[in-house]
Amino acid sequence: MNEFQLIARYFDWPASNAELGVGDDAALVSVAPGKQLAISADMLVEGRHFFADVDPDCLGRKVLAVNLSDMAAMGAVPRWFTLALALPQIDTRWLEAFSRGLRAMAEEHGVTLIGGDTTCGPLTISIQIMGEVEAGAALLRSGGLPGDDLWVSGPLGAAAAAVMHRQGRTILPPNIFAQCEVRLDLPVPRVALGRQLCGLASAALDISDGLLADAGHLCERSGCGAEIELSCVPYPYVLSDLPPDLLQEAILAGGDDYELCFSAPAAQRDAIEALKISTGLSLTRVGRLVAGQGVRVLDSCGEPLVLSHAGFDHFA
Ligand code: ADP
Ligand code: MG
Description:
Blueprint: H1 3-10, E1 35-45, H2 56-74, E2 77-87, H3 92-109, E3 112-120, E4 124-134, E5 149-152, H4 158-166, H5 174-185, H6 191-197, E6 203-206, H7 211-222, E7 225-229, H8 244-253, E8 260-264, H9 269-279, E9 284-290, E10 294-298
The protein binds adenosine-5'-diphosphate and magnesium ion (MG).
């Protein structure tokens, strides 16, 4: 099989929402009047972002899920994506499963694969995703104001606990590991929530580097600081038996959960509580934005904790 047969066999799907999809020198799409294009890219490298033995079907879902999560964080409707793929060799079983998982996730969210690039090299998967959002309505990181509440869209730390287990830093009972592993391998992008936060949230982002680091990014762009109450940060019940230091690290510094973190004026509390019911998500208020800079984590007495772990930094 050559490169072109490979593309035709695994990645040339019907492109329902594009004027021109895979097969030409570029794809053609139309953005609806009054909308802006939201564009984001994410690259996953074997050995760094995923383990070599990960199930390719799962991987196909995950690479798109992390990109969808960026659309969620912008409040955009995901519409199109491109796929740049470096493959060490043509492994038809791998390609079959990977493309199946990718396509399933794409169909679930109504996004279309409209092009890409395929080359030989160390396994690297890069997706660029594009979505539409009403002009001026996107959720930015920069809109937070001192006094706003800080929220997360669900429990944190499960994915990080699975990584800790795989790295041998802790041993989780098999049933608990299985529950954590699902969060790591199959994150659920909060796309519908992102849409509904438009007009409610003042700022938002998705948590991919850990709550502490990502809240820090929101603060930096918003020109303020934040206080997070550790006892308010939700984590799954199954993590209760982790040693306290690992639990704290998992919920504050663990990436890969892909929940949203957002700020909103206190006046929106009722609206957000209503969203909690309509979406079934455990939206939780974890702290507030404050004047100044930096993120402080407070213990149950309101005293700042001294923390050793920052978020994940690919070059650290
Ligand atoms: P060019 O040489 O003009 O860049 P390519 O030969 O790289 O074109 O690709 C041919 C077509 O296949 C293009 O439409 C391109 O977008 C698409 N394509 C290449 N690789 C992929 C991929 N991994 N997934 C989806 N489409 C792809
Ligand atoms: Mg090309």
